[in-house]
Amino acid sequence: MFDIVFKNGKVVDGTGNPWYRADVGIRGNYIQSIRPEINEDAYSTIDISDLYISPGFIDTHSHSDLMLLKESQRPEKIRQGVTTEVLGQDGTAPAPVPGTHKAFWKDYNKGLNGKLESDWPFSTMGEYLNALEGQTNTNVLSLVPHGALRLQTVGLDNREATSEELNSMSNLLAKSMEEGGIGLSTGLIYTPCTFAPTIELKRLCSTVSRKGGIFVVHMRNEGSWIFKALSEVIEVGKETGVPVHISHLGAQSKKVWGKGDRIVETILEAREEGVDATCDQYPYTAGSTLLSALIPPWVFEKHSENLREALKDQDTREKILDFLEEHTVEEWDSHFHRVGADNIYISSVSSEANKQLQGRPLPEAAEMRNEGIFETVLNILIEEDMEASMVVFLCQEEDVETIMKSKFQMFCTDGLLGGFPHPRVYGSFPRVLRKYVQEEEVLELEQAIRKMTSLPANRLSLSTRGIVKEGFRADLTIFDINEVNDRATYEEPAKFPTGIRHVLVNGNFVVKDEQPTDSKPGKVIKIRNP
Asked: pTM (2 decimals)?
């Protein structure tokens, strides 16, 4: 007897093969049977005629890390059809906790990954993953954050690590992977990862390669110097043999707009030379990150432990303002150089006093406050205790589509939960199905589903997920292609999509008839437990 039988569905199985009509029978956590007709009894039989049934979508770049502990029933991902999330991104994640800089690490994490009202009930990767077990409606995996490794050993110094420090970092990385981390992430524009030279990345990635993991990298530059940054990560992959996965790839500066084809060619050439390189991408022309990314790197180097106080200090403040007014792109490829202040929007703040600024372009926010643009950035960071984010219109649609069509690309949200978010938090995967499959015909349906399911499952070594296949986990998304619509916009970002009818995680409904359930069937997936 089956637990659930879906009748008359159009199975788009995730492999890229054409859809076919079949019944799908679920027993326990697994897909038990796929046949033209299933007549056996089931506790629940659901007719899904004219609906597509696919593997659950895999979000390869998620920032739900602490929000899942704070509010495990958050529906943003499951209502998109997401059944698996990859945490620990950009070199910044909750665990392992660098004991010598715990206060800084907690403060720094809250901008990207959320915050807990109480003290963190974990310190190691193993303890963090144990805390997630049984608490989530999605499956979760976590990368080991480079930032924590460097803080624990080198601290906040802008210098090369010593041989002894490299050994310590490698040992902590190996231990964290043995406890379940699936690889290493770094964010080479974020403190303290930005201080690490290429040789440090190679040393750490040698450990990752030996342990069978993956290297996920927010490159040192995604704008004016993107090709130099690509060369660095390709070199790391070539010399260490580590699988390289580039986060949120895009031509993110006016200087490289129209060069999406060259970016793709660079990665294809690396693959021909034996580098196992892939990327993910959010399906929007705008990105989102911490508002503090508008602060020059040297400020973090000198004042990371007391950044908020430094921004209030008159002498330091004047130096920062002078630098922002006068710096060249050679000194720092800031967002002001990449796309200009008009393309930078305040997206999320925590205080009621500044809520009126959410969704406003930076020049308008400055005018509302009767301040200069750079003063507004510093003052908001002070007033929000650094807990503020921004949306930046970085890319051209032509380049987004060029990268999207490449064989090695897959999809992600890269969304910061809470506040006034980027619409990708609510709409990334439905947007692909509506805009890029139905309307623009950039991708065929089967190709798009492959990029959401089996391709990332293969990248993450998930041996029983990502395909609608007998014996595989029953992570399933059932949708009406004619009704799928990502309703979230930049003006009204917190809108749920339509058309994602049912979502199952490990054989349990987490969305039924487009409404979330109270079920928390998600599993913590570790590197040795696919």
From this structure: 0.95
